[in-house]
């Protein structure tokens, strides 16, 4: 079973990053090329309830609209996202979250440990995307980043086939675990705005 604090350890820096995004940075590009900051925040807000529900083994009904058809970045989106990330981390901090199978959306059951790994990796990589786009320097612990690298190594080919990851970006073997994970996902660890 995974360390029950993985999601909490991934979430804390993400919440700090979100709280430090300035309103004039919402249209900035991110290393996640299909999203500017606003769209990436919207993506996290849109899928957050489903990822939280998967951890609680309480699937959330499929949204009526796609994430590109809704804008969840109105109002106090930073507080909303920080709260959602916290709830998701709490859900994945329970041993039952990682056991058996669960669903994100729809009827397909998947191994809960696979979904939990995806949740942790999403928090770290999208946190990195937002940090790079807004000039912040996030800090996750080395053990967590090794876990993220191992998870992404296991799922990289499948992620590419599904269109979730881009073509691998070559990264020296001596690079940090985070940089190697980013390269596997198709991100350039040296990306600058």
Automatic annotation (TrEMBL):
Pfam families: MDMPI_N (PF11716). GO terms for molecular function: metal ion binding. InterPro entries: CHP03086, DinB/YfiT-like, Maleyloyr_isom, MDMPI_metal-binding. It comes from the Bacteria. Residues 9-131 form the Mycothiol-dependent maleylpyruvate isomerase metal-binding domain. NCBIfam families: maleylpyruvate isomerase family mycothiol-dependent enzyme, TIGR03086 family metal-binding protein. This is Uncharacterized protein (TIGR03086 family). It comes from Plantactinospora soyae.
């Amino acid at each position: 079973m995974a360390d029950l604090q993985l999601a909490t350890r991934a979430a804390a820096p993400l919440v700090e990053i979100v709280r430090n995004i300035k309103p004039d940075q919402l249209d900035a590009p991110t290393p996640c090329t299909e999203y500017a900051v606003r769209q990436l925040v919207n993506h996290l807000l849109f899928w957050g309830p489903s990822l939280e529900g998967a951890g609680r083994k309480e699937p959330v009904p499929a949204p009526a609209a796609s994430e590109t058809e809704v804008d969840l970045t109105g109002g106090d989106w930073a507080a909303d996202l920080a709260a959602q990330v916290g709830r998701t981390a709490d859900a994945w901090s329970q041993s039952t979250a990682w056991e058996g199978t669960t669903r994100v959306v729809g009827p397909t059951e998947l191994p809960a440990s696979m979904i939990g790994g995806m949740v942790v990796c999403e928090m770290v990589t999208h946190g990195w995307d937002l940090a790079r786009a807004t000039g912040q320097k996030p800090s996750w612990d080395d053990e967590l980043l090794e876990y993220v690298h191992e998870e992404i190594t296991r799922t990289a080919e499948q992620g590419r086939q599904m269109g979730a990851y881009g073509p691998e970006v070559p990264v020296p073997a001596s690079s940090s675990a985070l940089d190697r994970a980013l390269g596997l996902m198709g991100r350039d660890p040296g990306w600058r705005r």
